[in-house]
Amino acid sequence: MPELPEVETIVRGLASVLPGRTIQAVRILDPKLAAGLSISPSRLAGRTFVSVSRFGKYIRFALDDGSSLVAHLRMTGKFVYSPDVAPPGGRPAERHLRLEVSFSDGSRLFFRDMRRFGTIRHVPAGETPAEEQATAPDPLSPGMDEARFAGMLAGSRQAVKVLLLDQHRVSGIGNIYACESLFRAKIDPERGGNTLSLAESRRLLREVRAILREAIRHNGTTISDFRSVDDKTGDFQNWLRVYDRTGQPCRGCGTPIVRIRQGQRSTWFCPHCQH
Q1: Fold for the domain defined by 146-269
Q2: Catalytic annotation on 186?
Q3: Of the listed 2, 87, 92, 189, which one is catalytic?
Q4: Architecture in CATH for domain 4-133
Q5: Could you confirm whether 132 is annotated as catalytic?
Q6: How many Cα atoms are found within 13 Å in the side-chain-facing hemisphere of 200?
Q7: Is residue 32 annotated as a catalytic residue, yes or no?
Q8: Catalytic-role residue among 74, 203, 259, 265
Q9: Is-contact 268 257, C-beta < 8 A?
Q10: Is 265 a catalytic residue?
Q11: Number of C-alpha atoms within 13 angstroms, CB side, residue 17?
Q12: pLDDT, one tens digit for every residue, the chain (275 residues)
């Protein structure tokens, strides 16, 4: 599933090409997506994109009438922009293509999603998306400062790794970046949040932010099928130190990396370096 760096990479790509483009037509090929959109595609014709932004793992497309489209990629959703009639690599297979937006200048935006879990919803003008109200600030936003982050950890006995994945507490951190941040902060993922000292909490937040920013600079992580707006892969996977490295030597001390299960997710860590 795309995490904050991947979504931010997509948002930056879309923000560089969509603002100012006017919708000529919207073609929805998946009834499931159409039901969630909550607006007739014909009513989107003539609308112009104003901006593209992110909150948590959600993408918000602001339109010129004050309304917006809010999208979540889930596991396999992808936006691909093409300045021409045919998208990069040819037209997407119809069985994976769920949405096609044609613009007045001939360019197009495609939403393809092999597993069909991704969502796109229309939010009327003046309405705050319910998704935004339910999403906590992410580590890169002003709303998640050291005090709030420390309080979030101190108020729970849950394992710190599980807390980092709770989007109602802190948004945007997925499994890859939680594992990598805890390794860099030298914190055992099984420790309860309330066992971390203030200094450890600050160190963890610092490493979370550093990891996310590094991943954004590398256009995200491609483990299986993540692609950016121009259909290119990310390359932060080349810099991972513990994620998906079961049994391989720690790059810090040489101890074999261990894999455990936490909250139905895999966790990788070094039992020697992380305390």
Answers
A1: Helicase, Ruva Protein; domain 3 (1.10.8)
A2: no
A3: 2
A4: Alpha-Beta Barrel (3.20)
A5: no
A6: 18
A7: no
A8: 265
A9: yes
A10: yes
A11: 18
A12: 678 888 998 999 999 999 999 999 999 999 999 999 999 999 999 999 999 999 989 999 999 999 999 999 998 899 999 997 555 555 555 668 999 999 999 999 999 998 999 999 999 999 999 999 989 999 999 999 999 999 999 999 999 999 999 989 999 998 999 999 999 999 999 999 999 999 999 999 999 999 999 999 887 775 554 444 555 566 787 889 999 999 999 999 999 999 999 989 999 999 999 99
